[in-house]
Specification:
Blueprint: E1 2-9, H1 13-24, E2 30-32, E3 35-41, E4 44-50, E5 57-65, H2 68-80, E6 86-93, E7 96-104, E8 110-119
Parallel strand pairs: 1-4, 5-8
Antiparallel strand pairs: 1-5, 2-3, 3-4, 6-7, 7-8
């Protein structure tokens, strides 16, 4: 099954959790001091919020899949359409271990394609301890795959 993914940056996590609990008529599947995530079934959406961004708004969009073969198919479609991508492979971010890659749309919006492998007790397991993860620092441009770093401005993902 595939699930649409949205990650927003918010200023006030508690106020935002209260709002989205009412909007979705559901409690978050995971809540941390800087993060909350709802795994909605109808429609199927992985909706995450965090306080790790520099300003409120959309950080990135994505598609989460339960099937590694579907992830490979999404990657193959991006490559065959000559979309440059950032292939992170297996990585940690947003309290989860995932296999993922990124593409950027013509407007500069980062799209994450990922398969969650399991939960972890910290936001990410970066060697620096405080490094952020997720959306590419610069838009990925069309062409062959690029080696683009990830945001280090304190923003997060998923």
């Amino acid at each position: 099954m595939k699930r649409f993914h949205v990650h927003l940056h918010v200023d006030d996590l508690a106020k935002s959790i209260a709002f989205y609990n009412k909007l979705f008529d559901a409690q978050p599947a995971r809540t941390e001091a800087d993060y909350a995530k709802w795994m909605l079934e109808d429609p199927p959406v992985n909706f995450a919020i965090s306080t790790r961004g520099t300003k409120p708004g959309i950080d990135h969009l994505g598609i989460q899949t339960d099937d590694p073969a579907e992830l490979a198919a999404m990657k193959a479609r991006a490559e065959s359409a000559d979309m440059a991508l950032l292939d992170e492979g297996e990585t940690t971010c947003c309290y989860a271990r995932s296999e993922k890659h990124w593409v950027t749309d013509p407007q500069g919006i980062a799209w994450e394609h990922f398969h969650t492998l399991g939960n972890i007790p910290v936001f990410n397991e970066a060697a620096s301890g405080g490094a952020a993860c997720c959306a590419p620092q610069a838009p990925v441009t069309r062409g062959k795959p690029l080696n683009i770093g990830v945001k280090s401005s304190g923003s997060g993902c998923c």
